[in-house]
Amino acid sequence: MSRGGGARGRVAAGDVLAIGASASLIHLAIFLTVISFFHISLETYSNKGDGASYKHMAAALLGERGAMDEYDTRVFPGYPMLIAITHLITRLSFSASALAVAFIGAGAAAALSAVVFEDRRIGWAVGLALPHAWINMSLAMSEAPVLALMMLGLLLARRNQPAAGGIVFGLSILTRPVAAFALIGLLLEQFARGRLHRGLLTAICAVLVFVVGMFVVRPITGGMFHGVSVYVNSPRAYGGQIFTWPLHSIWWMTLHGHVGWWRWIYIVAHVAACIGGCIILSRRNSPTDLLAFTWLALNTLFILCIGLGPGAWGFNHFPRFMIPALPALAYAWRRFLPASPWLYIPLVAVLFYIGVVGVRYCS
C-alpha cells in the first residue's frame, strides 16, 4: 500500500500489479463478453474503429501489402510495428496480436501512471475512471499502447535514463504524435529541476527515433507525411477541416448540431474537467505540476482546435482524444479521487455495461 492509504509516495509493487492486472482484465472481459453474447468473430471485432487499418499496415510491414489501401496509410506506424513484432514472436494472428498489445498496454499504462506520479489513486483512475477508455482500450486502437509508451518514457527519463526514455518517447510519437505534449512537459520539468541537458538528450533521441521511423516506413505509407494529408483531406476522415479556432466545434454543435441533452452534458463535462484541471495545475509550482500542466494544457488546446469534419470529430470525439493526457488529468484532480480501489466497484459495474454497449455498436 502506498503511504498514507492514498497519499503520494512510492507505490508498493503489489498495488502496481493489482492496478495493471485489473486494467488489462476489464478490457479482456469486455472483449469476451461482446464476442460471446453477440456472436462476433475475432476478425470482425478487431476491425472495429481503426483496427483494420492498423492490422493492414502491420501486415504490410512484414511484406503482406495486398489488403492495404490509400485510407490505411493515414495511421501512424508505431502501433502496427508493435502488432507486427507481437505476431512474429507469438505467431498469433494479426487480429489477436493487435488486441493483445491493446489489453497489455492498458494495464501497463495504468500501472506506470501510479509509479510515475507516485500515487496509486492516479493508477486506478487511469485504469477505471474514464468511460471512453473502457471502450477504446478494449478495441484494436492506439490509445492504450501510446499511453503505455508515454508513461514508460517518462519513467525512464525521470530516473536518470534520458536516452532510453527518449527512444521510448520516439516510439510513442510514432504511435500518436500527441505524445509530444508529454515530452514537452518533461523538457520543462527537467529545466525546472536544473537538468536541462537530460531533457534535451531525451528530446533529441525522441525526434531521431520518430524521423528514422517515418523514413523507414515511407515506401509503405507513400511518403513520410503522406498519411497526414490523407487524414486531412479524406471524406472518411476530416474532409479538409482538421483544425479550426478553439472551441469552434463545441459551440457549433451546441447551437446547430441538434445534440441530445445527455450527449451534450456528457461531452461538455469532459471539456470542463480538462479546463478545470489546467486551472488547478496552473496554481501550483512544483516541477511535476509543470510537467502535468504543460501536457494537459497542450492536449486540451489541441482537441479544442480539432474541426468538425464529416463526423463532428472535435465534438463527438473529445473524450477519446483526452485519453493520451489522462494521467495528467488524474494528477490534477487527485485530491478528489478515491483513496481505496473498492470505492470504484459501483462505478465499474456501470462502466462495464457502457464499455460493452459502446464496443458492440462501434463500427
Relevant terms:
single chain, 363 residues, mainly alpha, 69% helix
What does this structure look like?
The N and C termini lie far apart (41 Å). Helix 1 (13-37) runs antiparallel to helix 5 (94-116) and helix 9 (162-175) packs across helix 11 (196-216). The chain is mainly α and 363 residues long. Helix content is 69%, strand content 0%. Residues 1-7 have low confidence and may be disordered. It has 20 helices and no strands.
What gyration radius follows from the Cα positions, in whole Å? 19 Å
Report the end-to-end length measured between terminal Cα atoms.
41 Å
What low-confidence regions span 5 or more consecutive residues with pLDDT below 50? 1-7
- Binned, the helix content reads 55-70%
**Tally of extended strands?**
0
**Helix/strand structural class:** mainly alpha
β-strand percent reads under 5%
Shape: globular
Largest sheet: none
Question: Please, how many helices?
Answer: 20
* Average of pLDDT: 95
State the order of secondary-structure elements, H for helix, E for strand.
HHHHHHHHHHHHHHHHHHHH
